[in-house]
Specification:
about 210 residues, 9 strands, 9-stranded antiparallel beta sheet
Length: about 210
């Protein structure tokens, strides 16, 4: 019995160490990639590590049309095998998240999400009575809910504008409250997608949002 407990403890500690090291390696790769595209939206970002699965980059003064922005790297909890397995069965993967306050508040709210992505807490809390589900086909096989003056055509146009080849968009949120914009992408293959393409497309997307 003691031998089994010892073996289990060694296995868990070994998994924790390997999972943590891999996540740190993965996060550093992502940071090197992000830094090449970061000047497109701002300079002088502050960096904060939260454990081995979460990294924050904050830009207090971002370039127009942004007022401020933050970029998050959210990795699978590979250091905790049971939690990692549970989260993975629910569809969690390594994510790149962009949140921003724009120079003005949008005039509508939009919540779009990919397949198997849970609805945001705002939708769950307020219920469908406050939101209108977009009927018919939504770009990228996503589902979307809207509030305010925005057409299904515009929803699809924004989803397409936020999507790039090689970077899978899993969530798009536009809202009148801060953060005005949130984008969630699966971490791409860093050797196949240029960070300048992704971050360079964001100002144009925001200008489209502010015109509506």
């Amino acid at each position: 019995m003691f031998a089994l407990l010892l073996a289990a403890a060694i296995l868990i500690l070994g998994w924790y160490a390997i999972g943590s090291l891999y996540n740190v390696f993965r996060a550093r790769q992502a940071l090197q990639w992000i830094q090449k595209g970061l000047p497109q939206i701002g300079d002088k970002a502050t960096l904060r590590w939260v454990g081995s699965s979460w990294v924050e980059l904050k830009l207090a003064k971002a370039k127009d049309p942004f007022r401020s922005a933050e970029i998050l790297i959210m990795l699978e909890p590979r250091d905790l095998p049971i939690i990692w397995w549970f989260e993975r069965t629910r569809g969690r993967r390594d994510l790149l998240i962009v949140r921003a306050q724009l120079r003005a508040a949008p005039r509508f709210d939009l919540k779009a999400r990919g397949q198997k992505i849970p609805a945001e807490s705002e939708l769950k809390r307020e219920g469908t009575a406050h939101w209108t589900a977009v009927q018919g086909g939504v770009a990228n096989n996503m589902s979307a809910d809207i509030r305010g003056q925005i057409s299904p055509y515009t929803v699809n146009r924004l989803i397409v504008a936020a999507s790039l080849d090689g970077v899978k968009l899993t969530r798009l949120s536009v809202q009148r409250t801060v953060p005005n914009l949130e984008l969630q992408f699966l971490l791409p293959n860093f050797n196949q997608v240029a960070a300048t393409r992704l971050f360079g497309s964001l100002p144009q997307l925001c200008e489209e949002i502010l015109k509506m």
